[in-house]
């Protein structure tokens, strides 16, 4: 055992880690998701939309219905889990202070989507920010926890505060698709960045209609960053 392994083992004894799927306590120094729970979080496997990565139903072709109707601001994106199978886990991650899930989630993202992410040759990965009021209330930004861990595992640098949430927008889940887009108008500001960035990967917990990614991409384009991709923990939540 290396020193860091021993250290983590002791840390796990003091602060036991919980499994993202069942929330049960994990044995110290071992796996980050129970083996029996791994398959319960369903991976978004083909066929998925070539643009937004959500599941394709029936004979939709290469693009989902949403992407055939609407032009997105991002080039392409992928999500790890099919939303419903991960919904309760993500709820605890966002609202139940289960920040520790980020490591397990990021390991899975790196395993299944690491190739996709590295092939983009992106300059940086950037989390979708929370408004400072919501951040103060929650104490953390779940998208930033993910991007930090993804960056650590993939080696792609993270710029955690490139985007700033300008307005405290209404929670998206209570809004229709049209309302979501309106709700997000000018929601993001791009912080001045001395490095000339060309390609960015946005990170968020859930991809639904793409309204958030589109608005963030629009702000990045205006700031002179032409190529925007995304990765989300789960995709395809019901509208
Ligand atoms: Zn479990
Ligand atoms: Zn799509």
General description of the model:
- This protein has 239 residues and is of the alpha/beta class.
- The protein has 2 domains: 1-35, no CATH class; 41-235, 3-Layer(aba) Sandwich (Rossmann fold), CATH 3.40.50.
- Helix content is 38%, strand content 15%.
- It has 9 helices and 6 strands.
- It has helices at residues 3-14, 35-38, 65-69, 83-95, 101-119, 132-138, 142-154, 177-183, 211-222; strands at 76-82, 124-127, 163-165, 188-190, 199-207, 227-235.
- The strands form 2 sheets. It has a 4-stranded parallel β-sheet. Strands 3-4 form a two-stranded antiparallel sheet.
- Helix 9 links the parallel strand 5 and strand 6.
- Helix 5 crosses helix 7 (142-154).
- The longest helix has 19 residues, at 101-119.
- It is globular.
- It starts with a helix and ends with a strand.
- The model has no long low-confidence stretch (mean pLDDT 91).
- The structure holds zinc ion (2 copies).
List descriptors.
2 domains; single chain; globular; binds zinc ion; Rossmann fold; 38% helix; 9 helices; 239 residues; alpha/beta
Question: Can I get a quick summary?
Answer:
Helices cover about 40% and strands about 15% of the residues. It is an alpha/beta fold and about 240 residues long. The protein folds into 2 domains: about 1-35, no CATH class; about 40-235, Rossmann fold, CATH 3.40.50.
């Amino acid at each position: 055992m290396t020193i860091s392994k021993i250290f983590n083992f002791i840390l796990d004894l003091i602060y036991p880690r919980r499994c993202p799927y069942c929330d049960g306590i994990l044995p110290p120094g071992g796996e980050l998701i129970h083996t029996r729970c791994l398959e319960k979080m369903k991976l978004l496997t083909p066929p998925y939309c070539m643009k937004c990565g959500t599941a394709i139903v029936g004979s939709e072709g290469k693009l989902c219905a949403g992407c055939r109707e609407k032009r997105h601001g991002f080039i392409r994106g992928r999500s790890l889990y099919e939303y419903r199978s991960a919904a309760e886990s993500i709820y605890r991650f966002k609202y139940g202070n289960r920040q520790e899930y980020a490591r397990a989630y990021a390991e899975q993202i790196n395993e299944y989507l690491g190739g996709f992410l590295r092939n983009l040759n992106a300059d940086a990965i950037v989390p979708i920010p929370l408004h400072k009021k919501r951040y103060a209330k929650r104490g953390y930004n779940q998208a930033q926890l993910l991007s930090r861990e993804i960056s650590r595992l993939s080696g792609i640098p993270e710029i955690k505060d490139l985007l700033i949430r300008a307005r405290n927008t209404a929670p998206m889940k209570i809004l229709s698709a049209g309302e979501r887009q309106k709700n997000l108008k000018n929601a993001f500001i791009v912080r001045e960045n001395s490095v000339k960035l060309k390609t960015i990967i946005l990170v968020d917990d859930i991809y639904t209609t793409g309204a958030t990614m589109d608005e963030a991409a629009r702000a990045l384009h205006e700031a002179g960053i032409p190529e925007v991709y995304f990765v989300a923990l789960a995709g395809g939540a019901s509208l």
